[in-house]
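Exercise 7.
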Amino acid sequence: MQNGVFFVAVIVLVSEFSIAQLPTAGPETPSPAMTDSVMKLPDATPVLLRTKQAVSSATAKVGDRVPFRVTEDVRVGDLIVIHRGAEAWGVVTAVQPRARKGHAGTMNITIQSTQLLTGEPAPLRAEEHLKGVGRSMGSDAVGVLAESRGIALPLLPLIMLEKGKDVHLDADTKVTAYLNGDMTLDRTAIDRVQPPQVHPTGPATVTIFRTSSSTGSVYAPSVYCGKIALARLSNGRYLRIKLPSGKFLVRSNDNQVLELHLEEGQEIYLQMQLAVHGMNLKGHVVQVSTGEGEDEVANLREMNAKDVIKVSDVSLAELQAMPEKK
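Solution. The predicted structure, written as tokens, is:
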């Protein structure tokens, strides 16, 4: 008997103004365009967001507001104009719950605005593609069922009436929006509300994390600082170490070295990713922004101290040495 084939329904997070690709990196600081009294926040400045709550095509209604939060400061020059943690909003513009005959749910959400540091609204636009999964049976599959000896025929109406899947936009989903049009800002007003600058002291903090995933969930690649194997990093876990200022080399077992230049009191976040090498999985370490690192680590569990090397018991020379290939 031929299996049913799947199809997808595309759920689009759209804007009526334009379509843009999602970037993988953080927002670039726009080139300053300032005088003594005014500054410009250019059109298409990226604003990184995360959803604050889950949204589903099973329960959403047209007109429902969808809350987001900004995950990275947006700056013009050295001034913050949209701060990390600012609220942003979207609205459900179309929704169709899953239906019989395998039709998947669909949902359109338009991101509309966020808030400047001064409290003024800033218009946004965005595009995001999600996929809802449906079920479908072709004519060939129906023919096979009909020819079977009476066993499958009573099930045919139930199979043909099986529903597809609703679409779910999970809480904490990453979305990139873009400023919708140039904005001229009062430089004095922006300067007046800048958060106080903090100058941390003491050792640098390096957090290395691995997000939860079903891919390679049992595999736990090692992470090295210099010649020292710090730990085997399990799925959905993180570890933190304190290091003095200076140059350090970090890697996993793919042997690609990440060079860190740590400063006093600095906070660094490194993500362990899994990469396919031939027939094997290997760990690969990349640096991410502080905002992204904090967001990801908030949903993970810290590794047990007994499973992580105590760096204070290791010589600084070994921690700063060139890692040995494994």
